[in-house]
Q: What sequence folds into this?
C-alpha cells in the first residue's frame, strides 16, 4: 500500500522535528519545510495527502499555505498548528477552510486522534464520490474561461424546467454537463437516468424509453418500467439523440409536449414529471435541413443550447487538465507539457485522460517525459501543422484567427514554438523575437510549475 504523504511547515526547528517524528511514527511519510514560502512551493511540485502548518511563520503564514492548498485541491485536509490558540483564531481558521486546529505543545495522542479524524473524512469523501459517480457520473472539470462560461450557463438554467440540448464532439464532457444540470437543479434528490440512443435498435429503444407490458413481444414475461418512468421526478439524459429513428422521434416529441405516453403493448396512459437533457455530436440543424431529424423535435429539445468547445479550441486548459489526471506522486516535465499543449486531441478530454493514465503507468521515476508522449501522439511535427502561406493556401490564413482573443492566439503560438524547439526556452524565445524572461512570464501565466522557471540553454 502506498504510504500517505504529509506536508509539514513549521519555522521552529524543535517543533518541526518533534511533529515530523511523531507523524512518521503514525505511519506516514513526512515532507518537512521551514516556512510558508517553501510550503507553497512544495504544493506546486508534488501531491500530498495532508498538510500540517504552523500558523505564525515569516514570509507566508499558515493561512496563506491553507488558502493555496485549498485552491489547488479543495478536498486536501489542512491542519493549523498554533501556540496562540484563541476562539477567534479557531473561527478564522475554519472560515478559511481549515479541517482542524491543534495548539502547541501538541501531545502525541492529540496528533494521532487528529490524523484518525482526517482519515475518516477522506474515506467518507471517497465513498461519496464513488456513489455519486455511479449515479450521475464524474464531476465536470473546469480549467479555463471557456468551460467556466459553460458552467455559468448551466447554473443559470439548472433550476428551470427547460429542456437542454448539449452539443459537442465526442469526449468533450456532454454527460458531465448533464449531470451538473441535475445536481444544480431542484431535482437533485431525484433520479438521474441515462440512455444512449445510438446503442439500441429501434424496437428495443422504444421499450427502454417507455417500458412494456407482459406479453407485448416474445420474451416479455412481465411488465417493465421504461427510463421515463424510472426518471419520474428527476432528469433523463438522452445521449446521441441525433441517432434516434424517425418513428421514435415522433413518440419522444409527444412525451415532451404532453408529459405522457403508453408502454409498449399497453393502452394505459402513464404521466411523468421528467426534465430531459439531450446530447449530440452531430449538427442537428443540418440534419433538420436534410430531413433526417424532425424540425419540431429539434426546437423542443433546443430550448437551451449548450455548446462544448473542442479541447483544441481551448488549449490553455490542456496542461491544467493533464495535471488533474496525474496519479499521486507523478509529475510532468516541462517538455512533456509542451508536447501535450501542441497536440490536436481529436478525442478531446477523454483522449487526454486516457493518455495521462497510460503515461502514469509506464513512466519511469514518477516523471512523464516528452519522449514517452511523442511515441503515442505521433510527434510534434504532425500534431502541430505549420500555417499555410497565402501563396499556397486555398484561403486567407488570417481569416481563421478573426474573432479570437489576441492573448489566446499568442498563447497557442508560444506553446507551438516551444514544442517545435523541443522545449528549449532560449531557442523558442529567439524564434519568437522576445526575451527569455518574457517567455518565462507568459508560460507562468499558462500554469507552468515553479520548478520550470529556469530557462534551458
A:
Amino acid at each position: 500500500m502506498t504510504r500517505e504523504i504529509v506536508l509539514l511547515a513549521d519555522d521552529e526547528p524543535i517543533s518541526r522535528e518533534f511533529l515530523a517524528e511523531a507523524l512518521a511514527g503514525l505511519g506516514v511519510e513526512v515532507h518537512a519545510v521551514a516556512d510558508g514560502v517553501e510550503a507553497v512551493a512544495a504544493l506546486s511540485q508534488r501531491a500530498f495527502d495532508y498538510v500540517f502548518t504552523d500558523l505564525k511563520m515569516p514570509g507566508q503564514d499558515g493561512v496563506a499555505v491553507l488558502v493555496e492548498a485549498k485552491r489547488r485541491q479543495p478536498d486536501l485536509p489542512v491542519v493549523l498548528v498554533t501556540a496562540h490558540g484563541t476562539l477567534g483564531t479557531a473561527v478564522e481558521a475554519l472560515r478559511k477552510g481549515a479541517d482542524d486546529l491543534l495548539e502547541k505543545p501538541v501531545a502525541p495522542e492529540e496528533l494521532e486522534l487528529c490524523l484518525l479524524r482526517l482519515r475518516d473524512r477522506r474515506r467518507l469523501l471517497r465513498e461519496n464520490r464513488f456513489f455519486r459517480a455511479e449515479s450521475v457520473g464524474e464531476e465536470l472539470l473546469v480549467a479555463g474561461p471557456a468551460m467556466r462560461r459553460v458552467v455559468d450557463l448551466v447554473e443559470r438554467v439548472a433550476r428551470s424546467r427547460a429542456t437542454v440540448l448539449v452539443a459537442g464532439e465526442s469526449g468533450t464532457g456532454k454527460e458531465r454537463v448533464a449531470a451538473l444540470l441535475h445536481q444544480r437543479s431542484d431535482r437533485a434528490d431525484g433520479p438521474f437516468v441515462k440512455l444512449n440512443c445510438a446503442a439500441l435498435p429501434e424496437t428495443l429503444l422504444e421499450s427502454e424509453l417507455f417500458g412494456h407490458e407482459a406479453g407485448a413481444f416474445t420474451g416479455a414475461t412481465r411488465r417493465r418500467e421504461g427510463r421515463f418512468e424510472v426518471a419520474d421526478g428527476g432528469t433523463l439524459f438522452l445521449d446521441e439523440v441525433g441517432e434516434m429513428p424517425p418513428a421514435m422521434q415522433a413518440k419522444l416529441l409527444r412525451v415532451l409536449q404532453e408529459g405522457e405516453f403508453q408502454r409498449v403493448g399497453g393502452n394505459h396512459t402513464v404521466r411523468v414529471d421528467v426534465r430531459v437533457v439531450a446530447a449530440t455530436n452531430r449538427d442537428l440543424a443540418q440534419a433538420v435541413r436534410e430531413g433526417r431529424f424532425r424540425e419540431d423535435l429539434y426546437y423542443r429539445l433546443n430550448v437551451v443550447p449548450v455548446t462544448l468547445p473542442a479541447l483544441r479550441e481551448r488549449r490553455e486548459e490542456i496542461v491544467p487538465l493533464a495535471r488533474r489526471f496525474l496519479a499521486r506522486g507523478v509529475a510532468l516535465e516541462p517538455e512533456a507539457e509542451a508536447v501535450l499543449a501542441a497536440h490536436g486531441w481529436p478525442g478531446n478530454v477523454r483522449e487526454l485522460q486516457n493518455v495521462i493514465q497510460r503515461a502514469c503507468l509506464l513512466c519511469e521515476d514518477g516523471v512523464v517525459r516528452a519522449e514517452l508522449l511523442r511515441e503515442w501522439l505521433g510527434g510534434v511535427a504532425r500534431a502541430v501543422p505549420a500555417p499555410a502561406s497565402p501563396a499556397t493556401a486555398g484561403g486567407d490564413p488570417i481569416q481563421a484567427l478573426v474573432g479570437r482573443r489576441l492573448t489566446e492566439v499568442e498563447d497557442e503560438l508560444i506553446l507551438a514554438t516551444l514544442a517545435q524547439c523541443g522545449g528549449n526556452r532560449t531557442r523558442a524565445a529567439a524564434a519568437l523575437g522576445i526575451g527569455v524572461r518574457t517567455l518565462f512570464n507568459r508560460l507562468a501565466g499558462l500554469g507552468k510549475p515553479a520548478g520550470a522557471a529556469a530557462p534551458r540553454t
In short: The two ends are 40 Å apart (CA to CA). The longest helix spans residues 108-136.
